[in-house]
Amino acid sequence: MGGMVVPEVDAGAVPDDVFLLDVREPDEWAAGHAPDAVHIPLGALQGRVAELPAGVPVYVVCRVGGRSAQAVAWLNHVGREAVNVGGGMRSWAAAGRPVVAEHGGRPFIA
């Protein structure tokens, strides 16, 4: 994996109408996620890749950008088009992008 370059975009520059995949764990997702994101934890991604749309770029986010970079590298390796959201949900929230929490979960703190 070392040295593999993954396509990346700053969290504040992610277009509004893209397919956004959140690969964090369920407790992280519940604490706060982008309103239109789809949640598939990183560990489940290989078994659920068919749930992702083909032919469009998938933007992948985690907490700070590490797990999403792994997911992007794998997705591109298997022939999908994927882009890492640099800085993860921390940068997403810091950029003023919308964040929603699940049913009374504590609000996400960047």
From TrEMBL:
InterPro entries: GlpE_sulfurtransferase (IPR050229), Rhodanese-like_dom (IPR001763), Rhodanese-like_dom_sf (IPR036873). Residues 14-101 form the Rhodanese domain. It comes from the Bacteria. Gene3D superfamilies: Rhodanese-like domain (3.40.250.10). CDD domains: RHOD (cd00158). Pfam families: Rhodanese. This is Sulfurtransferase. It comes from Sphaerisporangium rufum.
